[in-house]
Amino acid sequence: MLRPSGALLRRARQRWELQPPALRRRARIDQLGGLRGAVWGRALRCASTEAAAARPPTAIMMLNLGGPGSQEEVEPFLRRLFSDKEIIELPSPEWFQRDYFGPLLAKRRTPSIQAQYSELPFGGGSPIKYYTEEQGKAMCRHLDRMSPESAPHKFYVSFRYASPLTSDALEAMARDGVERAVVFTQYMQFSCATTGSSLNEVWRQLRELDMLDRFEWSVIDRWPTHPGLVESFAASIQQGLEMFEEAERDDVVLLFSAHSLPMAVVDRGDPYPQEVGATVGRVMEELGLCNSYRLVWQSKVGPAKWLGMQTDEALEVRRLLPCPAP
Amino acid sequence: MLRPSGALLRRARQRWELQPPALRRRARIDQLGGLRGAVWGRALRCASTEAAAARPPTAIMMLNLGGPGSQEEVEPFLRRLFSDKEIIELPSPEWFQRDYFGPLLAKRRTPSIQAQYSELPFGGGSPIKYYTEEQGKAMCRHLDRMSPESAPHKFYVSFRYASPLTSDALEAMARDGVERAVVFTQYMQFSCATTGSSLNEVWRQLRELDMLDRFEWSVIDRWPTHPGLVESFAASIQQGLEMFEEAERDDVVLLFSAHSLPMAVVDRGDPYPQEVGATVGRVMEELGLCNSYRLVWQSKVGPAKWLGMQTDEALEVRRLLPCPAP
User: Fold this and answer.
1) Of A275, A277, A288, the CB nearest to B273
2) A197 and which of A86, A153, B134, B252 could share a cystine (Cβ 3.0–4.6 Å)?
3) Residue B213 and residue B231 in one domain
């Protein structure tokens, strides 16, 4: 994530907060009850498997930033990223960033990013699509068992800057005759620059594709302290701790490293730092506060001020166990 | 809190982390089990009330910043505050801050602070001592019932910058023949500038009073998600919400306003922002995520950069319910 824009991010946040209260309230309920609550709702009632076969699927839109699938897709990916007013702060008008700044910066950065992806074992691109699809398949199998009333369930990957884009997902949903859809952000914590940008893109594309009344929506806009998330982090940290000699295990400091945000975004009241703090707190409770720990912030870019302590500075301390980014 | 010092705060933190692991571990257990675990420990075993009457009390040291008790105490209070290297960042040597900067700044600020306190209905001073003593009395009554094995319990108020000071508390404990003591910070979340400074003062005074081996210690160094704390915040927010008309209650945005920290302290890895985030997360869960909410930060002073969003900026939004500072 680069420097998100001032006035525009504020507008993005306001736009999201101006969603109908009913929608926001349902999102909150979903956050508590998990996917199940979302899929139930006041939706499909009949329960037989035959009926399910004849029914259109309940759609789960999996929102994420995405990544280029191949070397060729690197440049369009960067172009979309650098053109997003909700991610990069430019005082210039929208057309300038979309038609000049974004494409130019993307062209300049493409070779170095291509080189980095070509070092990974994923065909010159990012593995994010592969893993999202694997997760989507497992999720739908689980939902079909858990909630036959709303089966069949079908996932639609919806990336913000890579294929399949939001518009691809919405068009596929329309082709499948979807009536009931769940927006399910893959970002655990809400930031205007990530979930906010993705949700705004959903509303924008619905308008552009003339689908505003096409689907009945639920929204899962964050899940920072979902028990499944907390347990999974705790289990993986436990595994990491077991790699240390028993004698020194108690002295290991756990280092939770989350993606940082520019201070301009933090100072605007972005909820992300608080929600990351809540995730870390719950994971440490799940672990019985077994070790000392710190929450630090990674991936600062550019000259602007970002939220610290920076991970690389924290790594100067010895005997640390870097934890999965919460 | 003013601008805490760079190298010195780092040293304070390191000093704290260099406490013997057994002590740190016990502090962690205490945080989970609350006071009860701390008071039990491997301490006093006999359970009869007669025995309790003959025993020295189990001491609970209640650490806090403190406040002047009267108009006369304002200047000494400010002098101690401005002389604390762990609170105010000065590149100068310690003697300069203690003997010149602290006293001079205190003298200059005393009239305006005196005027502010004289507007309050507490005899020209701060009510913090009165309320801490009331809480101490209730706590000890509760502990005597809860844990007769370690009764009688006696609290010792231990303020960092006002009377009774840490040394007053330690001397009173020695006079009472205390053998077993619990350090119980009244700061819910740990910051190097608050709890850290107070704990360092305890170790410093123990050394100066030649009492390093005098007491057996437990430490409660933070309690950001203690169920009692979470329930009490939630109940008071619920009361606040009921002051709104039912029709508009759902649209109220809850504003959690916590004391801010200079970014220099945040960037050094102070655990306070994460722990405040955890408190807010748990309170909102306790409330069933009933309303939108934001965590914002108050009481910035001086020209340096502090953690935002600042509370006064957030207050521009309408229909907010300011919540007790977590």
Assistant:
1) A277
2) A86
3) no
Asked if A277 and B282 come within 8 Å (Cβ–Cβ), the reply is: no
- CA gap B297, B313 in Å, rounded: 10
The count of domains in chain B is 3
* Cβ within 8 Å, pair A289-B224: no
Is A308's CB within 8 Å of B274's CB?
no
The length of chain B is: 326
Residue of B nearest to A189 (CA): B281
What is the model's pLDDT at position A30? 38
Assign A178 to helix, strand or coil. Answer: coil
Burial of A240 (0-12, 13-18, 19+ CB in 10 A): middle
Q: Is A295 in Cβ contact with B274 (below 8 Å)?
A: yes
Mind telling me how many Å the CA of B29 is from chain A's nearest CA?
Answer: 8
In A, minimum Cα distance to B226 occurs at A285
**Nearest-by-CA chain B residue for A295:** B274
Q: What is the pLDDT of residue B18?
A: 34
Query: What are B12-21's pLDDT values in tens digits?
Result: 344 334 343 3
**A121 Cβ contact partners less than 8 Å away, ≥ 6 residues apart:** none
CA-based nearest residue to A201, from A299, A306, A79, A61: A61
Nearest-by-Cβ selection for B269 from A224, A269, A296: A296
Nearest CB to A281; choose among B24, B266, B281: B281
Copy the structure tokens of residue A285: 């409770």
CB pair distance less than 8 Å for B274 and A276: yes
CB proximity A200 to B under 8 Å = no
Do A154 and A77 share a structural domain?
yes
Cβ-contact B186, B65 below 8 angstroms: no
Q: How far apart are CA A268 and CA A7, in angstroms?
A: 10
Contact A251 B21 (CB under 8 A): yes
The residue whose two tokens read 């995520």 is: B289
Answer for the pair A184, A148: CB distance below 8 angstroms, yes or no: no
- B1 lies in some domain: no
Q: What are phi and psi of A212, to 5 degrees?
A: -60, -30
Alpha-carbon span A50 to A205, nearest angstrom: 34
Helix, strand or coil, per DSSP, at residue B234: helix
- The answer to whether residues A5 and A85 touch, using CB atoms and an 8 Å cutoff, is yes
Convert the pLDDT of each residue in A88-142 to its tens digit.
777 888 889 889 988 999 999 999 999 999 998 888 999 999 999 999 999 999 9
Question: What does the alpha-carbon distance between residue B277 and residue A49 come to, in Å, rounded to a whole number?
Answer: 45
Pair (B272, B254) in one structural domain: yes
Q: Which of residues 15-34 of B touch A (CB under 8 A)?
A: 17, 21, 24-25, 28, 31-32
SS (H, E, C) B120-155: CCCCCCCCHHHHHHHHHHHHHHHHHHHCHHHCCEEE
Q: Are residues B213 and B282 both part of a single domain?
A: no
Axis-axis angle for helices B102-118, B74-83 (nearest 10): 140
Residues 276-305 of B with CB under 8 A from A: 276-278, 280-282, 285, 288-290, 292, 294-296, 305
pLDDT greater than 80 at residue A1? no
Q: Answer whether A125's CB lies under 8 Å from A73's CB.
A: yes
Give me the domain span that covers residue A43. 6-54
Chain A residue with Cα closest to B289: A28
Whether residue B158 sits in one domain with residue B113: yes
Per the CB < 8 Å rule, is B309 touching A280? no
Chain A positions in Cβ-Cβ contact with residue B28 (cut-off 8 Å)? 289-290
